[in-house]
């Protein structure tokens, strides 16, 4: 028995390995760019530090406790909610996770075409000069093509997603290293100076600041994806918190150093006067400028662009397929979702579910044809994603609060804290912060963007409430709905 335990421990991963896995899952270069653009350059540093210490660290540790408690659950957040709150709430959690991806799916097609324009032309002057109706038509065609790919169960792009994701992660790290090395290699290239005074690092707490916080919440979210690995770490009660603390430190260092690297390249005043351009193209412009510093022209930008093309389109397929399978493939689905949506074709794809994605995401793509240009579309999608995607994190905190409320019912190998008051405070605090950022993020000075930010969540929530009612009528009487 002792020998078997030793062999089992030998197969388990070390905590630094888990920390690196989590880092590559949670973090990306786009987060650095968005933080720099939305929060006036280096003024985002203060906000990053606060977000990591007061939000990300407790969030990650709560995920660790949930993962350790429900180590055999395969449904992620929905399984946690099912175990702690019941099947009805688990359905709503699964629906939220899927509904959030409706906007995300729309952004992948737009992002993929933009990356392709950079990869082919080395800029987006031609692409951004097209009428918005044309670019949205192209986006719709791409979206419909990948919906067809999903319906055929073609797996090749799913494999490419892992390769693209890894390469993008490596390039994000290399960007920071190479940018700080650039002044030594090419001292006369013309860099901006960084002021490390209080004024340059302290944000202005105004309406713009408060309504942009959802960008940071969106950036640090998603660590629940690593919950299946909690019990695959040696001595999880001791080593999982180490991995999560290491993750928080790595993300914080990457965000801060990435911000300073951007500050050497771009003047925040210029960025503020061209927000849509930098939101849409900032990452490509950064790699283009890095190539100029190293006298290799657009090499880094082209590599980044084509990695992003593969990443955006493969993620599009995964985002159509995976959340749909999590929603419709769960036990809760059969109790709360009409039978027609559960139809599976010969390739194993939820064909009517894909049609639902086509109608909702396709409708959003079509509606954005009313915006003035392709840059405005990209900027709006970034903001809309930041207000909708974090809604799924609310279920993590709700499940954690419910877990601590009924903790005597469950066995776990790891707890964030044994103090019940502190555990409740952390769960409630993170829930309130997430909800507040989502609500505040809805505001936009642009009337059409504000309208879409309001109407999109309303439609998705309403549909989530209507489907169980249809199912109840379909069954005649469903006692689970009472």
TrEMBL record:
Q: Name one GO cellular component term.
A: plasma membrane
Cellular location(s): Cell membrane
Secretion signal: which residues? Answer: none
Q: How does it sit in the membrane?
A: Multi-pass membrane protein
Primary place of residence?
Answer: membrane
What Gene Ontology molecular-function terms does this entry list? transmembrane transporter activity
Protein name, as recorded: Amino acid permease
Q: Which organism is it from?
A: Lactobacillus johnsonii ATCC 33200
């Amino acid at each position: 028995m002792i020998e078997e335990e030793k062999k089992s421990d030998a197969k388990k991963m070390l905590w630094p390995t888990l920390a690196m896995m989590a880092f590559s899952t949670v973090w990306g270069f786009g987060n650095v760019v968005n933080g720099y653009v939305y929060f006036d350059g280096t003024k985002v540093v203060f906000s990053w530090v606060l977000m990591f210490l007061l939000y990300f660290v407790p969030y990650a540790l709560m995920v660790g406790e949930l993962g350790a408690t429900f180590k055999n659950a395969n449904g992620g957040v929905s399984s946690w909610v099912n175990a702690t709150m019941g099947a009805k709430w688990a359905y709503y959690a699964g629906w939220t996770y899927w509904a959030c991806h409706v906007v995300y799916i729309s952004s992948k097609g737009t992002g993929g075409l933009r990356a392709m324009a950079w990869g082919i032309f080395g800029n987006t002057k031609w692409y951004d000069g097209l009428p918005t109706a044309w670019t949205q038509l192209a986006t719709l065609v791409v979206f419909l093509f990948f919906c067809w790919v999903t319906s055929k169960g073609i797996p090749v792009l799913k494999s490419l997603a892992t390769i693209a994701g890894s390469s993008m992660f490596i390039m994000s790290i290399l960007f920071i290293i190479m940018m700080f090395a650039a002044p030594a290699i090419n001292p006369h290239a013309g860099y901006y100076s960084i002021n490390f005074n209080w004024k340059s690092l302290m944000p202005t707490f105004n309406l713009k600041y408060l309504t942009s916080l959802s960008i940071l919440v969106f950036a640090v979210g998603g660590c629940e994806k690593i919950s299946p690995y909690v019990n695959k770490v040696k001595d999880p009660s001791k080593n999982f918190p180490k991995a999560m603390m290491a993750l928080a430190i790595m993300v914080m260092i990457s965000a801060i150093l990435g911000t300073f690297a951007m500050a050497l390249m771009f003047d925040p005043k210029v960025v503020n006067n061209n927000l849509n351009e930098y939101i849409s193209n900032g990452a490509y412009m950064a790699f283009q400028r890095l190539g100029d510093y190293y006298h290799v022209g657009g090499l880094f930008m082209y590599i980044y662009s084509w990695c992003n093309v593969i990443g955006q389109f493969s993620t599009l397929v995964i985002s159509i397929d995976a959340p749909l399978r999590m929603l419709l493939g769960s036990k809760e689905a059969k109790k709360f979702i009409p039978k027609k949506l559960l139809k599976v074709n010969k390739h194993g794809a939820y064909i009517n579910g894909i049609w639902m994605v086509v109608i909702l995401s396709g409708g959003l793509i079509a509606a954005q044809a009313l915006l003035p240009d392709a840059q405005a579309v990209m900027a709006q999608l970034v903001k809309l994603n930041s207000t909708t995607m974090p809604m799924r994190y609310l279920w993590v905190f709700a499940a954690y609060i419910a877990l601590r409320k009924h903790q005597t019912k469950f066995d776990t190998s790891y707890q964030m804290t044994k103090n019940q008051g502190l555990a409740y405070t952390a769960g409630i605090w993170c829930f309130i912060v997430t909800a507040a950022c989502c609500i505040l993020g809805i505001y936009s000075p642009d009337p059409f963007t504000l309208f879409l930010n309001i109407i999109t969540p309303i439609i998705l929530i309403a549909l989530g409430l209507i489907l169980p009612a249809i199912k109840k009528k379909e069954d005649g009487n469903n006692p689970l709905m009472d």
